[in-house]
Amino acid sequence: MSQHYPALIIVVPLLAALAAAAAGWINKRYCFPIAVASLAASFVSSVFLLGRVIRVKEVIYEMAGWTAPIGIVYRVDALNGLVIVVVTAVALVNLIYSKSAIEEDFPDKMGTYYALYILFATGLAGMVVTGDAFNLYVLMEIASLTGYSLMGLRRDRATVSALNYLIVGTIGATFYLLGVGYIYIATGTLNMAEIASFMSQMSDSGSIRMAFVICLAGLFIKMAFFPLHGWLPNAYTYTPTASIGLIAPLTTKVTVYIMIRMALSVFTPEFSFKTIELSGAIVWLAIIGIVAGSCMALAQKNFKKMFTYIIVAEVGYMVGGFWLGNRAGISGSVLHIANDALMTLALFMAAGIFARKIKGEEISDMQGLFRKMPWTMAAFVLGGLSIIGVPPTCGFFSKWYLISGGIEAGNYYFVGALLFSSLINAVLFFRIFEVAYFEPFSESHGHDHSHGHEAVAVEEAPLGMLIPFYVVAISLVILGIFSGDLITKIIYFAIPAGIV
Amino acid sequence: MGEILDFIIAKSNYWSYVVLMMIGLYAMISRQNYVRKIIGMSIFQTAVILFYVSTAVKEKAVIPIIAHGHGEEANAAIEASQYINPLPHVLMLTAIVVGVATLGVALSLAIRVYQKYGTLEENEINDMIREQ
To answer: A162 touching B, CB under 8 A?
Structure first.
């Protein structure tokens, strides 16, 4: 049993997606337990897998017993061992949180919705554990296609955004596929470890350089790295509550992980940082992206849209930190993948509760919310403080590593951009806190946004939403307190020994 | 001039995939109509399929089916250069399936958009969204 964990993470939810779709035809009440059970099994497997990775450093699973170059292997080490736990945890917690939202938004399509939800989580988990470059493309498309459907399933503005996202996302994925083709021409293999073993003799090869650039371009589109971020804000702002808590925290973070995996374990650090002289340019783009993302967030009146621009800036943190190319920067980047997934989840969980209760999406609609829903707001404050980077929340620690990486590399513009963005984030969130805390609650608010909805009593969120929200908010602090252990016990081993 | 022509002809498969890919990319970016964008997307994906398949070709090679592959001759040594590389074809079988699925999702989203807005022109839809 225990040697099959890498497969169980994928296979259990894959089969459960079929079961959930079938259960939707028979009795809708079975869908939710099936979904929770499968994602919980996936989460438990990934936790045990991480435990095993900490002991043995690397777990290689050969699918159906076919060995490496012929068959597809799943390879889990310290880097993706951590990411897979985060992916399955976010998918599970958000599913429990979204139960009532799904029942409300998709009453007649619950089987379909749960099947898509589980498939999306499966696709992302598969992208994280796979050790095969082409297999990664297929899983990426599974995650993308289900993601577009999750966005566009409700008949509203989201369909247009989902269609635009689909067109841009397909460009990104196809570029990645083309890059893999060039790798295959040059090396004759698709297994990541085997490609890496050829890389020392191939660093002059034009095909490999071309492959590197095309793969990176495709991944940058997929992760909404500035200036290729145009699709993200609209796509995420109009997505239904249940879907956004899954898509927003995970899609960009998993793609950043793929970039790190490609650069470190496929193209090898020697090639990515030294032979190809692109890292300086990428860090500059990241700096511009951080500043621009923060400024555009400041310009928004709609809080959901503001959060989406914060994601754009956060992608800049991770990409920039990684391409600094030193140990502190890469540690900060990997730690930030975990932290940012949870922080973004906390923000969008809060946004989901607000959207349900106040029926408006403007910051000015949030007057007096501290008095009306004190528990929700308390957890939201934790999420906000973490994004700003206030200790002891986890956002502080990853930013600390990123900044010390910037100082080590002597790139003070990057350090400056991080500090500037933290400052802007402080302004952003204290602006919300001010409206919600000091301005009195007005009964008339939101009337022009209600579109004929009946007036909803503004009150505390139901416990079914509040408890998962608190699990996430408290885990932000717990992750912060234990981030030293995460760095020394896990992330340290994720970075090749050659990088200091 | 002759050298350039030779260079283009020798790499004709790469040139044709690049040209197709750029036609697709141009259609996706410049067209206002969503159906045209989706057609561009399909061309874009097909170009990559063409690229992969063309890399499998070897001169004077045959399809990778071993004649008389059963019985006592099954264990005879195989000269790889006599057979074209089957792996890109197999990979592209998967990519075609992915492309069809993408096309299906795109068209169904386009139908939803048309039902809601009564048009598939991007600028008209954007105007309607702005007016709301």
So the answer is: yes
Q: Which residue of A has its CA nearest to B37?
A: A167
pLDDT in tens, B8-57: 787 888 888 999 999 999 999 898 899 999 999 999 999 999 999 998 88
CB of A139 within 8 Å of a chain B CB? The answer is no
CATH: 1.10.287.3510, 3.30.365.10, 3.40.190.10, 3.40.50.300. Which one for B2-57+85-131? 1.10.287.3510
Contact at CB, A166 and B106, closer than 8 angstroms? yes
Contact A157 B129 (CB under 8 A): yes
Does A299 map to a domain? yes
Which residues in B lie closer than 8 A to residue A210 (C-beta atoms)?
A: none
| Residue B48 with chain A: CB contacts under 8 Å | 174, 177-178, 181
Cβ contacts of residue A439 below 8 Å, gap of 6+? A367, A368
How confident is the model over A65-99, as pLDDT tens digits? 888 778 889 999 889 899 999 999 999 999 999 98
- Compute the nearest-CA separation of A189 from chain B (Å): 10
